[in-house]
Amino acid sequence: MANAKEIKRKIGSIKNTWKITKAMELISTVKMKKAQDLALEKRNFVLEMMKIFLRVEDYLADNPMFSANNEKWKTLAVVVTSNKWLCWGYNINVMKKVNSYMKETGEELDFIAVWKKAAWFVAKTWNNLLADFSDDFTDVLDPVFTKKISELMRDEFLSGKYNKVVVFYNFYVNTIKQIPVAKVSLPIESEDIKKYLYSILEDHYDIDKEVEAVKNGISYDIEPSKTQFINEVVPMLLDMMFFDTLVNAKASEHSSRMIAMKNAKDSANKIAWNLTLKYNKARQSAITSEVSEITAWVESMKDS
Questions:
Q1: Is residue 123, in this structure, part of any structural domain at all?
Q2: C-alpha torsion sign, points 48, 51, 54, 56
Q3: Distance CA 74, CA 215 (A)
Q4: SS3 category, 204
């Protein structure tokens, strides 16, 4: 019966694992939904930002954020991962994307780490870590904190030390599919901003109608100047775009962890079921053996 007891102990351990992974799956599901909803809460604000941007679009050509520094070949890389593992290939895929980018382009990279696994990756690969924001962020993203990174990205780019800023993260496609991407954040193009704004609004507003209304609307005189106005509006848009990138990455992380925990839960359930069969067989074998011994003892008593 010792074997049956050992199997029963294993069944209890596996069932505890099942409970933990089930709980983690449910938590990740809720967090993923919150991350998705967060990206949709700002539609009215985005609509007004689009109207403002369309009015100043023609004056962006001379803005330094819209032109690359061709005298420099160094790139600032912002790597977005998670604070923990247990999320399938979420972190590994981003790290592979960084490595493949470096091999394909031959560019020299300095790094900004967002969340702990990014800092771990930079340290393990002996690259230059310019800034580490691992301890500043939790699963609840706050635009005030994400703005710190966005401002650092702009300041470093405008300083002339870098030719461009590239953000590495997992792009959320759906619950079971996330794609690691290398997104050029700076220099930015006017079409990229419009594409971003339209993507948020297109399912809720008639974009063509809104654009036409701006074009046919009253032309305003802007004070103190259009240049100074642009220097306020564009950073605000870039902050919002980077915040959305992190929200997207978080949705990908929670989706990846949800799937990982579901697979772990299903595996634990399967193992527990197989162990239960083994336990029942061992228990049945022990009972049969005991019955046989009793029967043999009874028969021996008859003979005597």
A1: yes
A2: negative
A3: 40
A4: coil
Range of the domain at 78: 38-254
The DSSP annotation for 24-76 comes to HHHHHHHHHHHHHHHTTTTHHHHHHHHHHHHHHGGG-TT-GGGS--TT--EEE
CA 230 to chain centre: 31
The rounded distance, in Å, linking the Cα atoms of 113 and 130 is 8
Q: Indicate the helix (H) or strand (E) that contains 98.
A: helix 90-105
- Residues with Cβ within 8 Å of 31's Cβ and at least 6 positions away in sequence, in order, are 139, 250, 254
Strand-pair partners of 132: 113
Exposure of 256 in the CB half-sphere (CA atoms within 13 A): 27
Instruction: List, for residues 57-105, the tens digit of each pLDDT value.
Output: 777 777 788 877 666 678 999 999 887 767 778 888 999 999 999 999 8
Tell me the C-alpha distance between 141 and 170, whole Å.
16
Both structure tokens of 285: 């074998």
Q: Is 128 exposed, middle or buried (0-12, 13-18, 19+ CB in 10 A)?
A: exposed
pLDDT in tens, 198-255: 777 776 667 777 677 766 665 666 666 667 777 788 888 888 888 888 888 888 887 7
Cross-strand pairs, 74: 108
Predicted TM-score (pTM) of the model is: 0.76
Closest CA to 67 of 293, 207, 298, 234: 234
Residue 282 covered by a domain: yes
Please indicate, yes or no, whether residues 198 and 182 belong to a single structural domain of this protein. yes
Residues in the chain: 304
Task: Tell me, yes or no, whether 130 and 170 share the same domain.
Answer: yes
- Could you tell me if 153 and 275 lie in one domain? no
Residue 185 main-chain phi, psi, to 5 deg: -90, -40
d(CA 100, CA 19): 38
Distance CA 48, CA 282 (A): 71
